[in-house]
Amino acid sequence: MKGQTLLSQAHGTVSCGSDPPDDSVPALRAHLWTDSAEETSGMEKLLRKCQIRNQLVRECMAECLGVYVLILFGCGSVAQVTTSQDQKGQYLSINLGFALGVTFGVFVSRGVSGAHLNPAVSLSLCVLGRHPWLKLPFYIFFQVLGAFLAAATVGLQYYDAIRTYSGGELTVSGPTATAGIFSTYPADYLSLWGGVMDQVIGTAALLLCVLALGDQRNSSLPDGLQPVLVGAVVLVIGISMGSNSGYALNPARDFGPRLFTYVAGWGEDVFRAGGGWWWIPIVAPCVGALLGTLIYELMIEVHHPPTPSELQTPCQEATEGKTGLELEGVEPGCEKAT
Q: What is the pLDDT of residues 277-289, one digit of tens each?
């Protein structure tokens, strides 16, 4: 603001027709650049003081923020559709809200943590050996925390609308129930076993498609296109598999907001409703994720032909790029490889 004010004053002086000395304008410009550099330097110093160098902490923060974005847009879309009684959106709006929430959540966190955004995804990557088991509990905690904070944000933003819609009572079931804005609940016709199968199949489909999108030996995709297609996977699952129980597919996505509703006034009914439904969106997605991972690995990825680097023998690696003098010390049996 200081630089802008001085600059506008300088323009005003010149436009009014006054004749400042020839060296006044360069001096003024130098003064402006000096002030700007000092302000930038001060901000950079402040930001550097906030910098966290621990890699695990940075990854956990990225997961927390990525899930926060996902739930903010996802549950926010549910809140708008529900409290407006389908006047400002419909079921497709909710599908798009979660799909785009996933897309932007991935963009937010993928460069730091890999954008798991889902304990079931983190678990599957640990099983595949692509993610350290030691980090798993930390990832899960911060994923749930991000979902909890996002649900709290949506609850605060739509507080008046929720109260008006429900007549001042926070209920889990009934014609004006609002707990479903934040967490998933089964349809009246859905059995407990049917709910387990619903979540297992949906999450298996999610992991199968996500692994395919990340498999560079299957199809090489532009880097910026992958988050968009992950969001498209969530969209198509919602369109085709959402009516039974709301396609949670993500333990953090369901448990974090459910925990918020428990402490925010909906009470113990959030854990009792649906015949004790709350544990199914936690356990079944993990089973489904492992199943989808196993299917993709056994039917696609394990059958890829080896790359040239994988075909290279240990002897070739040992002798590649060495001079004649260096090759005198190679192990017996490696001479033929040279």
A: 999 999 999 999 9
